[in-house]
Each structure stands twice: as structure tokens, then as C-alpha cells.
Amino acid sequence: MIKELKSIIIFLSILAYCPIFGQNIIEEYQEVKNDSLRIGKLETDFLKFIEKGYTLALPENQKNISGVIVFLEDSGFDQKNKSAKQIYSEANSKGFAVLSVSTEIPLDFFFSEKSIADAHNTIKEVFKKHSLPNSNIFLVGVGLSGHRVLKYVQFQKKNKPQFLLNIAGLVICDAPLDWIRQYNEGERDVRIAFTEGAIWEGSFAMYVLDKNLNGTPQTNIEKYLDFSTYSYSDKENRNIKYFKDYPIRAYMEVAIQYWLEKKRKTTIDNNGADMVGLISQMKLAGNENSDLIIFYPHQSKTETKNTDATWIAVDKVELIEWITKQTE
């Protein structure tokens, strides 16, 4: 059913309703801009723009929606809303709507406040159009989407737009938050040149960070510290104040042997370090309703280790129970 919907939603602002597992799935996306973004120095280093819009999964009884779970996911690549889909059934069964919002930027780092404002405006329009309750709002981010979630919270706190989401909690899964660490990881991957995939990822990270943050951590560290929602290198922990009052869950998988063998990565060459650091700072700031959930290799549900695999390992029933508990 989801694949059928994907084939329908290609052109400008196509709206589709489809019941699935006692739900209504609503999708509305704009026509893709015929343009692309440079992500590296090679002639082939471009990514095409993606569909800007949203997917909304509503519970069958739409008159008694108890809250909304919001994902800031890309609409591109082969699996639109792939993280949000995994929680539709459990969330809808408890009365939560699930909203997945995409900007037009592929792999959007939210470098530009315009991107964050675009996501915010889409959220505002969806809440108005579908009469969603602005209460019990939980933001969930997997991988890069986790970074976007925290940047969105920052945007709300700093800009105080007229429409404000009443955020009740945050869930972050295996997300890159410390862009100094991320840049150094990419630089090491390029230097050791162990696998082509790691070289590409490292080159991509270094290029987009250098371009958008006006230099490297060595030449413009303050820019990196401001952009990082958490950074081990930030003695002031300047951005923790934006998140310290929210209940928060952070998920990670310990896969040291896997990354050592596959890409010769060290213990700090992964997003897990950022998850531990974020929760540590939350607790130091007095937030005792902040938890780090760790998966170990024997608990993994896939042989591959990445952000998607970590999210697959998350017990969605237990997570929805945690979310529901925060609303009591």
C-alpha cells in the first residue's frame, strides 16, 4: 500500500488518503525543483533536490488524537519516511498522529535557517489544515534527523515564532551532534583510505562542513561550536540550555568490533559518543528525566551496523509507553 502511494505522489501537491492498519495516511508533496546541490569537488558530486512536503498518519478515531509525534525526515532516496513508518501502528493505537516533514534539501543539515523555517511552516500548515492538537508533541530524530530535531528546538527557543509547538519530549537515535568530532572522523577516514565508502563519506562531511561553516574546526572553531547542538570540545556547553528541560531519550549501539573490522574506526569515530555526551550534559544540567539506551551486538536485529539498524532495534511498543508516560 505504501509503495502504491509512492507511485501516486510524484507531481505538484497530490493529496492521498489511504487506510492502513486502522489508519489514514495523508501525503502532500510539491513538485521537485529541477536543480541540484554540490556536495564535493568532483564533477559527479551533486545531489538532486527532493520533494518538499509531509506524510501524516492519523489514528482511525481522529476525534480523539492525544498527541503528535514529529519526524524531520528526508523525502528522497528509496524509502520515504522510513523511520516514521516503523512507529505508525504503535503510535496510532495509542491515539498519536505521526507527522514526517521534509524540506527540499537532500541530507539537510539545517545549515540555513531558511530550511528550518520551511520545515516549521510546513508543520504549522499541517496542524492548521488537519486540526491537530498542539499538545503532547514529541520530536523524534534518527541519524541526521536527530540533529535536525535539536536544531528545530533551538530555532523555536531563539526565534519564538507566533506558532510554537508545545514540545513534551525528545527522542534521538544514533545522531551526529558534535560536528568537530564529525569533521575529524571524516578527515581520518580520508587519510587512512581503508574503504571507498568511508572515503566518500569523509570527503562529503568535510566538504559540506567547510563550505557551510566557513572553514575547518582548526580555522573557525566557534562556528562549529555554535552549530553543534552538543560538542565534547565546548567548555561552555552553550546549547544544552535549549534542551535541558525536556524529557529525552537517546539510543545508541555499541559495535566496536564491527566498525574496527569494517572501516578501521575507533571508539570515537561514531555517533554513540555524541549520545553519551548529550545525556551526560543533560544530567549535569539537572535533567534526571534523560536516559541513554544502549544496544549490544547480541541484541541487534540486523548484521549491518548503522543508524537505521539502531532504530530497528528500538522496542517501539516500549518507546510509545515512555512517550505516553510523559503525558500523564
What structural keywords apply?
single chain; 2 domains; 328 residues; Rossmann fold; globular; alpha/beta; 12 helices; two-stranded antiparallel ribbon
Can you walk through the features of this model?
The chain has about 325 residues and is α/β, with parallel strands linked by helices. The protein folds into 2 domains: about 1-180 and about 240-325, Alpha/Beta hydrolase fold, catalytic domain (Rossmann fold, 3-Layer(aba) Sandwich), CATH 3.40.50; about 180-225, no CATH class. The chain has 12 helices and 11 strands. The strands form 2 sheets. It has a 9-stranded mixed beta sheet with strand order 1-2-5-7-6-8-9-10-11. Strands 3-4 form a two-stranded antiparallel ribbon. α4 packs across α5 (about 145-160) and α6 (about 180-190) packs across α7. It is globular. The two termini are about 35 Å apart. Mean pLDDT is about 90; it is low at about 1-20.
